[in-house]
Amino acid sequence: xxxxxxxxxxxxxxxxxxxxxxxxxxxxxxxxxxxxxxxxxxxxxxxxxxxxxxxxxxxxxxxxxxxxxxxxxxxxxxxxxxxxxxxxxxxxxxxxxxxxxxxxxxxxxxxxxxxxxxxxxxxxxxxxxxxxxxxxxxxxxxxxxxxxxxxxxxxxxxxxxxxxxxxxxxxxxxxxxxxxxxxxxxxxxxxxxxxxxxxxxxxxxxxxxxxxxxxxxxxxxxxxxxxxxxxxxxxxxxxxxxxxxxxxxxxxxxxxxxxxxxxxxxxxxxxxxxxxxxxxxxxxxxxxxxxxxxxxxxxxxxxxxxxxxxxxxxxxxxxxxxxxxxxxxxxxxxxxxxxxxxxxxxxxxxxxxxxxxxxxxxxxxxxxxxxxxxxxxxxxxxxxxxxxxxxxxxxxxxxxxxxxxxxxxxxxxxxxxxxxxxxxxxxxxxxxxxxxxxxxxxxxxxxxxxxxxxxxxxxxxxxxxxxxxxxxxxxxxxxxxxxxxxxxxxxxxxxxxxxxxxxxxxxxxxxxxxxxxxxxxxxxxxxxxxxxxxxxxxxxxxxxxxxxxxxxxxxxxxxxxxxxxxxxxxxxxxxxxxxxxxxxxxxxxxxxxxxxxxxxxxxxxxxxxxxxxxxxxxxxxxxxxxxxxxxxxxxxxxxxxxxxxxxxxxxxxxxxxxxxxxxxxxxxxxxxxxxxxxxxxxxxxxxxxxxxxxxxxxxxxxxxxxxxxxxxxxxxxxxxxxxxxxxxxxxxxxxxxxxxxxxxxxxxxxxxxxxxxxxxxxxxxxxxxxxxxxxxxxxxxxxxxxxxxxxxx
Length: 793
Known about the structure:
Layout: H1 4-14, E1 20-26, E2 29-36, H2 42-55, E3 63-70, E4 78-84, E5 89-93, E6 115-119, H3 123-133, E7 143-148, E8 169-170, H4 176-182, E9 189-192, H5 197-210, E10 215-219, H6 223-233, E11 236-239, H7 243-254, E12 258-264, E13 267-275, E14 296-301, E15 324-330, H8 339-345, H9 354-367, H10 371-386, H11 388-414, H12 420-431, H13 435-439, H14 449-464, H15 466-479, E16 497-500, H16 504-515, E17 520-524, E18 538-540, H17 543-547, E19 557-560, H18 565-581, E20 587-592, H19 595-604, E21 609-612, H20 613-624, E22 629-636, E23 639-647, H21 659-666, E24 669-674, E25 685-687, E26 700-705, H22 707-715, E27 722-728, H23 737-748, H24 752-760, E28 764-770, H25 772-782, E29 788-792
Parallel strand pairs: 2-3, 6-7, 6-9, 7-8, 9-10, 10-11, 16-17, 16-19, 17-18, 19-20, 20-21
Antiparallel strand pairs: 1-2, 3-4, 4-5, 12-13, 13-15, 14-15, 22-23, 23-26, 24-25, 24-26, 27-28, 27-29
Helix pairs in contact: 1-2, 3-20, 7-16, 9-10, 10-11, 11-12, 11-14, 11-15, 23-24, 23-25
């Protein structure tokens, strides 16, 4: 091929393009490596090289690949493929896609590893069957038997019976004969998802007695009992179908692009989606492969045509303005607002008398410049203004003091032989309504008539103001069940969340919002005796009527999660119309019970999010049936993402693989790793772990995955990596070869001995199976140590 190199250089010089050319032949294909600072017109360059190759006398190749490198860069800028037929040349841009996934399965599978029993065919049970069936692939079958007390009246799926391996068994799943008929002795897992938690737990105990090895997944909200049963029964997972989607509803109310929020260890992580703007320097004009940071991971650059949930981009994709990206990161700052911001959110129109506070404040500033007293005064003013009754009591007290002083002076100077003490005490009795007590002890001829009339006026005024305030205080005491210092909660004025419905799901959402310190209001049909009753503004009664009292039009989000999906829709439409009247956008999250209804809502309210709680939870139940622990879930690109925890065991499909192979091969995102043994530095826990970590028995790995990703892990179904060629020349300093060999081994996953032999034999070339992002990382790591070129074959 040496004679072809000057021919190509001569052709390119005619185009005024100066390049370094290297030509290698692999079987019947040429690899032409070009290195330059300016490639000119790409099409003309490729056509010129194609003509040189076609006219070459010793042409014994059928195709050629052209790799264009910027000078000094390890990875190609672009790739073109040329095919040489007998009479013509065909030029095609090289595809930069992963190959089709290959599956390595044994030809035979024991039925014990693919049979499942589902007890309870309500909405959750039917969705669990549907999601379990998704794990079936080619030769791998998932056979499902279903048990219910009665034949289900409503079917969530058309042709549901086709998902089952045999007709539905009608009977009591707690009975041994029913479980035996369903094949409990040869099934891999049993899902107990009836609406009666007592039945679920009784069936779990019976199933364990009949099959000591069956994996049990139970629908249960009894956390203490669940933990005790897990310790006693073993191979047992308990999930709450209400608890799992609660986080999805809560983050839907946060808006601002927050998709998911969950806690791992002592760290809180959130998933965020945002549209890139011109001043977003964190992402703008940055290659995608550089967006995996120490404290964050890029999840997606939205592509509506992609079937992949994660890593659907090319590593060299440049993020541009208006691109929509999703990423996971640590929550460094709490979601709570500062006290100043919260006071703004809860501000109310000031009482007319508040102007008096402002005048006193101005006078205070003139009298004293003390910062301390000024801050104390502001705190006192804010305390009085926060609750209307406090202001009434204050003005009532001031009125009483003024009247007390005036009446004391009048009595002392106009009643003969009265002392100051007697005048002051008589004035106090007048204020308390004791007009008869005062004038019953004085001679009529000793007191002028106008003084009597004046004292009567004092008594009447005190009845209107002073005693009215006393009555207000008494009413507050009685209504607060003798809690004398109960705080009246101000209603947020704007940017708050309105939570409609306070069933089990509503309670869980409210707990999450309260922990996040997000301003919100609860609207429910009936009052509830709970800790939040005196901490959050609450309206009870007819939900539609009560909504008007919540500053509905100025709310940031509406979470409608009652048990009536039509009521949820009505409340959402009412909120949307209220927001439209003042030209505001509002986040709407609607709880539904029918997946078809959810799909139809997407057309009616395109900007809303409708969640079928059981459909979301069912994906977690199906994943848990294969032995994994489901920690949380959220929605991304209209698909459910599960937060799954794996404990690596012998013969696991993850064992021996590094996180690059796991992430890009199974299309999942590792976010937390706890190793079975401490590293050299003593650490065992790693958040956003390095792609170079290799899985060993006993390691605990938490990752984000769709249900298809869980299926690939279960089957060991890796996307095949590309074959890359790494060409390297000797470095100026041979001392870097050891470090280069270690990086080659860690990033590519090749054998350490092979990597070191390659480094000792430079200049040389080596073929490596790698995923695109792996190859880009390897190129960036090695180019700092020695001259290299790396390109796909």
